[in-house]
Amino acid sequence: MAAFDYTPILARRIISVITIDRVEDAEPLAGALVEGGIDSLEITFRTTAAAEAICRIRAAFPQIHLGAGTLLTGEQVAQAAHSGATFGLAPGLNPVIVRAAHERGLGFIPGVMTPSDVESALSLGCLVQKFFPAEVAGGIGMLKALSAPYANTGVRFIPLGGVTAASLKDYLDTPCVAAVGGSWIADRNLIKTKDWAGIKRLAREAVSIAKQG
Fold this sequence. Notes:
The chain is of the alpha/beta class. The chain is 43% helix and 16% strand.
């Protein structure tokens, strides 16, 4: 199977990470993010609304690069693919899940935090890896140290977990970082209160910071 092309997903260097509780919020949320300049989304499978939210966003906004996050089981991988996700992510590294995603044509970005994680992910063909939880695991300093021995492999990282607008540019300025995953852009409480204007504003701010690099 040909390697998955992550270039379109990572083009803007920001992936908005979303936990959605009500499926009816899917379309207005995605619309706010697109208007704010973000077209790469990760819908986490932390709620029962995830699969249907992906379906709705895929139908309404076919141009969005739509990922499914927190994929922990084969069943979730199947749901994500059936719903219209084109890539998947997980907080950790499970070879069974990586292979299940690849079998369904999903690009997959596993979570890593140690050199052993990085090597295991590389052995499974994962050249894009999620550094998680980024801030708790040591932030930029740890990420630089972790990536140094593997620079020759071409591996790139997406830090996620505790990243904020204040630290976004520093992460994006780190050579091994392909993109940053941000949950602050479409915070769960902002979604619950339907603050689409606020989410659009935060998206625009994040895109503006990314363009400074």
